[in-house]
Amino acid sequence: MANKKLKLLYLAQYLQEETDERHPRTLQDMIAYLERCGISAERKSLYDDLELLRLYGMDVQSVRGKSYGYFLGGREFQLPELKLLIDVVQASPFLTQGKSMELIAKLEKLTSRPNARQLRRQVYVMDRVRTHNERLYYAVDGLHTAINDDRKVTFRYFDWTASGGKSYRREGALYETNPVALCVDRHYYLVAYDPAIQDYRHYRVDRMEELTVSDRPRDPLPADFDLGKYVRRIFDMYNGRTETVRLRFDRALINVVMDRFGADGHIHPDGERIAVTAPVEVGPTFYGWLFQFGAQAEIVSPDAVRRDFARHCQAALSAYPDA
Fold it and tell me: Which helix (H) or strand (E) holds 34?
């Protein structure tokens, strides 16, 4: 009798896991499945059960013809959405390869087994630099909890050594700070308020260890903090002063130029090239970005920025005196 009461649950699970538009299942398939679960069923009762599932809100559909059967149509996530989510998981350098594959396996359960096999065939984790910190996933969750609950956090913070080991700052003593926000570029960063300096600091989350959400309430935060402005600054870690710079690029770089400057830049044709006038934070980060284009890009003005970039290039070349 108990198994009889479970019949609807097993049937719903079967439709979720085994069927989709391209893989309908017949009533006989469902009867065989229920028998494997220790439940006997008749065709007439299944008609009633499928109708109950429709009334409950499941999108149970039927097809006629050579492939006659039933399948679950609408799902919370459609296949293209799952493919997109899997692409995002694969592209995340702040997830370890093990955690990426674990999340992908969970995403696969949101569709039918036949579609999951299709997703699995598409899974290819590229040979990219990934975080070494397996606990990052849980550290991010803990930081979100602390921010939402207005709590301090404690952690140990380290730098990598030349030999691949860890060198703990403050000789391994715990940091205690006031978490404000989490930001993502290629890595997760914690933005935290330090009342001792009445300013903000940021920390790479993958270089935190032993992170704990404290019982101590977070210190009051200044009301005038502009998170967006701070994030733009920390994502270019070695920025310098902001200057309005005029540049020229080969026309072949128009997509790159639009990606970099977008609405912040005044872009117009300049003979065979493209002229761009935009505010940039001049310094090693910007110079490194520009350097990759070689003779296809040029700083036109101001002269001081042009000279500074030339010195930056000369310093790089000085490492190759015999070349």
Answer: helix 27-36
Q: What is the DSSP letter of 76?
A: S
Q: Are 150 and 215 in contact (CB under 8 A)?
A: no
The pTM score is 0.57
Give the SS3 label for residue 96: coil
Beta bridge partner(s), residue 156: 209
Q: Distance (Å, rounded) from C-alpha 307 to C-alpha 165?
A: 39
In one-letter notation, the amino acid at residue 92 is S
Mean pLDDT over each residue of the chain, to the nearest integer: 84
Domain boundary among 234, 253, 272: 234
Residues 226, 257 contacting (CB under 8 angstroms): no
How many distinct structural domains can be found in the chain? 4
Q: What is the pLDDT of residues 306-317, one digit of tens each?
A: 999 999 999 988
Contact 188, 94 (CB under 8 A): yes
Which residue type does 185 have?
A: D
Parallel, antiparallel or unpaired: strands 188-194 and 208-217: unpaired
